[in-house]
Amino acid sequence: MTKDITETGVTRRGLLRGLTATAAATVAAGAAALPSSAIKAWDMHTGVLVIGSGAAGVSAAIEARMAGANVLLIESLSQFGGSSAMSGGVVYAGGGTALQRALKVEDSVEQMYRFISLVGGVHPPLDKIQLYCEGSVEHFDWLLAQGIPYTDKLTLAKGLPMGDESLYFSGTEQAWPARELAVPAPRGHVPGIDGMNGGRRLMQALLSQARALGVKLQGRVRAQRLVTESDGRIAGVIVTLDGEERAIAVRRGVVLACGGFIHNRAMLRRYAPQLYDCSVPWGNADDHGDGINMGIGVGAAALRMNEGFAIAPIYPPEYVLSGILVNASGQRFISEESYHGVLGDAIAYHQQGRAWLITDRDSSFTFHQDNFLPVAEANTIGDIAAQLAFPRGALQHTVAYYNLHAANGEDPMFRKSRAYLRPLQGPPYTAWDLSTAQAFFPAHTFGGLHTTVDGEVLNSFDDTIPGLYAAGRNTAGIPTAPYIASGLSVGDCTFFGRRAGRAAAVGVAA
Ligand SMILES: Cc1cc2nc3c(=O)[nH]c(=O)nc-3n(C[C@H](O)[C@H](O)[C@H](O)COP(=O)(O)OP(=O)(O)OC[C@H]3O[C@@H](n4cnc5c(N)ncnc54)[C@H](O)[C@@H]3O)c2cc1C
């Protein structure tokens, strides 16, 4: 998968040969567009130019090529695959996929739609969600056809399978209130290989498919800025290769697929301060928001730039879920069994980034782990509260109320499932620091360019910018905050990446 550019259809020397100097000065990626009148000579021509070699870009490239376009895909790094190759490779799919049917899992488009539209953030993109759910069965067939290996194996354990199971509950479907809003079904589809290698395997398959179709892949080429005609149409892109600027003319369309901006500290501070404080920027080294800024540079609107996946991965092991999560007031604020992204969102966005997991003897981590550090240990809840300087009596009240109802198998506040519900009793009690800054608290961004369901980039007046398309974490897509299930991002990248690639090649069907 991680081929050097010399192994691709376009060689470094070939590109260098075809390139001549342009009038443009070197600028930061994403700077304002350059008028085409400033280009003395184009160094190269292509039908469709895809920028970024992650799941969104490669899916776009495959479909653009299938639609008959000449496709050049450029990647700033020497390795192809982006964050997508680092990921678990989980794709959120449902409504009766081939794998769900093989495993006799019942699901429907309607329940999948209810889950994504009702459980996530406010005002989600309903047009995209509807299309995504309706197209999910076909999309999974497409993933299979690209050669991604899935096994007919289901696991009911919480968390990404580390064995070769390919289907699991990847989100918060079974936690309250989600389970009352939509019938839970396992929809996390993950390549059936051991360990956290799903993303690598998924990208291997997509990249070799792109190569086989004749997509030209070029590494170590960084897109810097878009070039526009006087009527606003995108005419091409200025890129850098070995520090030299080159101009690529694009006949049909440019697809921005450069990923998110979790490694751009200035953008995080400006747009997503809650994510700025999270301890682990989770993503490919070039998650700098270049594509988003290039889009903004030609007048594109950007949406939900504050949102992202803030992750509090307290399970596995599932036995810690018998503990309770409390905020700085010593109060519970969520069902502890909620998916990592829902827990992380609650802490990062709604509790000023501070929370603690309180465990008793039997819910304490029984193995060494340094994701969450023990910051108080005592034989009484009162002593824990004192060590954490909680408001007087608050934690004691929280635990007494919780224990009273847990003894009857009830959780009136957050309806935690009975499997994880029992009174907290039996010292020592431990408080584990779950703060965004101190704990292992990964995060990446969801905000991006405003696009149609076909990836056409829109300005603030909802007008399309001719010749410009975007997909994946360059766009504001299906993943919103809170992130309710693993697989919604790579699912969105591949599904809407395909649509953007097709639209860039042949336009949007009326
Ligand atoms: C450890 C980890 C596990 C994850 N697991 C999952 C999971 O299982 N399921 C899921 O849905 N999500 C998961 N995610 C999130 C998911 O991986 C990303 O949101 C998604 O892969 C983004 O895909 P993309 O195609 O938009 O961008 P990327 O895959 O990041 O690809 C963008 C590419 O563009 C390149 N690029 C950037 N700027 C330029 C430029 N100026 N010129 C040229 N190229 C450029 C980058 O180098 C990169 O290769 C995970 C993330 C991480 C870090």
Q: What overall form do the CA principal axes indicate?
A: globular
Q: Can you tell me the CATH superfamily of the largest domain?
A: FAD/NAD(P)-binding domain
Query: How much of the sequence is in beta strands?
Result: 15-25%
As residue ranges, the low-confidence spans are: 1-27
Ligands in the model, by name, code or SMILES, are:
flavin-adenine dinucleotide
Give the tally of β-strands. 22
Average predicted confidence as pLDDT: 93
CATH topology of the largest domain: FAD/NAD(P)-binding domain
- Structural class by helix and strand composition: alpha/beta
From the N-terminal CA to the C-terminal CA, the straight-line distance is 37 Å
Question: Which percent range fits the helix content?
Answer: 25-40%
- What is the level 1 CATH name of the largest domain? Alpha Beta
Count of discrete alpha- or pi-helical segments spanning 4 or more residues: 16
Please provide a written account of the structure.
The chain is an alpha/beta fold and 510 residues long. It has 3 domains: 252 residues, FAD/NAD(P)-binding domain (3-Layer(bba) Sandwich), CATH 3.50.50.60; 106 residues, no CATH class; 129 residues, Succinate dehydrogenase/fumarate reductase flavoprotein, catalytic domain (Flavocytochrome C3, Chain A, domain 1, Alpha-Beta Complex). It is 29% helix and 18% strand. β10 and β11 form a beta hairpin. The longest helix is centred in the last third of the chain and has 19 residues. The protein starts with 11 loop residues before the first helix and ends with a helix. The site of flavin-adenine dinucleotide (FAD) has 41 residues, from α2, α3, β9 and α16. The site of flavin-adenine dinucleotide has 41 residues, from α2, α3, β9 and α16.
